[in-house]
Design goal:
Number of domains: 1
CATH architecture: Roll
Number of strands: 4
Shape: globular
Strand content: 25-35%
Number of helices: 5
Order of helices and strands: HHHHHEEEE
Organism: Romboutsia hominis
Keywords: Lipoprotein, Signal
Pfam families: DUF3887
Distance between the termini: 12 Å
Protein name: Prokaryotic membrane lipoprotein lipid attachment site profile
Helix content: 40-55%
Largest sheet: 4 strands, antiparallel
CATH class: Alpha Beta
């Protein structure tokens, strides 16, 4: 539970940095690139490549979470959900100068939602898994 609170804090930091939320995606972003990168983040997490995920984070986010903490947060979910099957749904949301991709992912034993927030440099500003 402590790990989930940490990840929630990490995500909320990204949202707060973005100010008021709007649904319009800034012209600074390429929708296809965002979707492709978010799918890559999901795959890295599912394949236990936590250091690669950390490498994609902004310097601010790196000060809040490390690869071991990410593993500790994901492992109980992974154990419960089982093997990755597919990404069922993707949604893009604009947050001023940030972009958020919501990925609904199907596993053998259920679904998970990954909410991934990017800055204009395509660095992660938020990551939430539920």
């Amino acid at each position: 539970m402590k790990k989930m609170k940490m990840l929630l804090l990490v995500f909320l930091t990204g949202v707060v940095l973005g100010g008021c939320t709007t649904s319009k995606l800034s012209e600074s972003y390429d929708e296809e690139l965002l979707k492709e990168d978010a799918q890559g983040i999901v795959n890295m997490i599912c394949n236990d490549e936590y250091s690669k995920v950390i490498d994609k984070m902004s310097e601010n986010l790196k000060t809040q979470i490390n690869a071991e903490q990410l593993k500790e947060a994901w492992q109980p979910m992974k154990d419960k959900l089982g093997k990755f099957k597919s990404i069922n749904k993707e949604e893009l949301i604009g947050n001023e100068d940030l972009a958020t991709v919501v990925e609904v992912v199907e596993f053998d034993n259920g679904k998970a939602q990954f909410t991934i927030t990017y800055n204009e440099d395509m660095k992660l500003e938020g990551l939430y898994m539920k």
